[in-house]
Amino acid sequence: MKESAAKKKGRPVLHDNRKNLINTWKKFVCETGDIADALSTMNRKLGTHYQHGRLGVWSRGNKLPAANTINYMLKMVLPRLLSDAGLDDKKTIKQIVDSVQIPDKDHRDTKQKEK
User: Fold this and answer.
1) How far apart are the first and last CA of the chain?
2) What is the model's pTM?
3) pLDDT 10s digits, 15-65
4) What is the enclosing helix (H) or strand (E) of 52?
5) Are 13 and 52 in contact (CB under 8 A)?
6) Cβ neighbours of residue 93 under 8 Å, at least 6 residues apart?
7) Which secondary-structure segment (H or E) carries 113?
């Protein structure tokens, strides 16, 4: 573990080699802070009570996160990946991110709600 990572508060993050949304999200949030703070922020924004161990369960594929959690992570990860790949148009990035959001019960199309 790097010295800087050891000095950060919270639980140490052990990255595995699986490339997936969860591990990419963990990698990105650890670049600017620590996983405990990122998890706390996510819980506050989503009204959830996830604990650190749940991230491991998701990253191994034992269970999947709820749609709103996947969308939250996609909104953080996808713009960075697209930008790193050379796409710099923020409007296009937003359109791409919006087009891959998973429908959930709180964000259904209003026309569908009327049916």
Assistant:
1) 54
2) 0.76
3) 567 899 999 999 999 999 999 999 999 999 999 999 999 999 999 999 999
4) helix 52-60
5) no
6) 78, 79, 82, 83, 87
7) helix 110-114
CA geometry: angle 1, 42, 83, nearest 5 deg: 70
Q: Give the tokens for residue 83.
A: 């930008």
pLDDT band at 72 (very low <50, low <70, confident <90, very high): very high
Residue 107: its pLDDT value, please?
56
Q: Can you state the percent helix, strand and coil of the chain, rounding each to 5?
A: 60, 0, 40
* Residue 59, amino acid: S
Dihedral angle computed from the Cα positions of residues 80, 34, 13 and 70, in that order, rounded to the nearest 10 degrees: -50
In degrees and rounded to multiples of 5, residue 104 shows phi and psi of -135, 170
* 72, two tokens: 């939250």
